[in-house]
Amino acid sequence: MKDLVREKELQLAYDRIMARENLQISGAPGMGKSYLLRALGQKLQGRRILLELNFTGVFQFEELVFRLHEGIEKTSAQHAGLEYQIKRLHQEHPPHRIRQAQDLLEYLKTLTTMLFQAGQDVIISLEDPEYCEVQEIKPEELVKEFKKMSTAANIQLIILSEFPHLKAAEQIHLQKPEAHEIWVEATTEQRNLVDYSLGNLSFLKALVENINQHQGNFNPEAFFKSHQNQFLMLRQRFTDLQWRLLRALASEEVVTQPHAFDFLVRHKLGAASSVERALRNLLDSAYILRDEKGYRIKDPLLHRWLQYLYYRKTF
């Protein structure tokens, strides 16, 4: 299995950056957003300095500040023209003095001025900013400040996220890949693998590794074993009805009308009003999503684990 190279999207992203536009690479988890950014970074070597920031899973304000400082120092160490300025900046704004949101905003303003005065073209990339969960500053406020930074003539912003943070015209949306984009002459089994992974490239790679390790056959028990404890712990977060609704959605792939009488009866879900509340909670917590086809479980691995656990269904 080769790495998926999205030549069309890569060239489009490169052209927009060279035109000094901000950019969002959007798409569901596992669609290759990070991989596309890495390919873009290689293509931009010598033309832009890429400052990559990832605040996923940050719950404490101190950790947010640490990640920010660490990312900036790591990048500046590779560029002699920035290293001295960043060291001086961090002497004036050491992490232990940034204790609240206002301190952080002042730091970002000073960073903007310093980068502008340095005169080198810089791209700041934010990966999944909505998963920064500190209490002191909301994700949208953090993104807003980085947008302000990108108004400087030599600073641009790239956001990697499935949620819209920039205008539609500034987004490149990554769709589910086709089997022929990964294998030159895709077999029926390989096409089935792409469908089973729901286009999630990380999931797909893990499936291929499992098959290679088991003499060309998929071993679902071995595949899902490493995820079993994680998902069983996740089970405790849901009510009994929410869990049964997840099972029902998994069994039918996509459900257009989860309030329909036949669906409720088939899966013994009870009253439509109760299902409506459970459905809303699962939507709000992003465990399921709704698109033009209907309702489905968002995480493809959770989806397939539920199918295997309760229905012994694979591909």
Automatic annotation (TrEMBL):
> Gene3D superfamilies, from UniProt?
P-loop containing nucleotide triphosphate hydrolases (3.40.50.300)
Spell out the SUPFAM superfamilies in the cross-references.
P-loop containing nucleoside triphosphate hydrolases
Kindly give the InterPro entries that the UniProt entry links to this protein: P-loop_NTPase
Q: What is this protein called?
A: ATP-binding protein
Please report the organism this UniProt entry assigns to the protein: Croceimicrobium hydrocarbonivorans
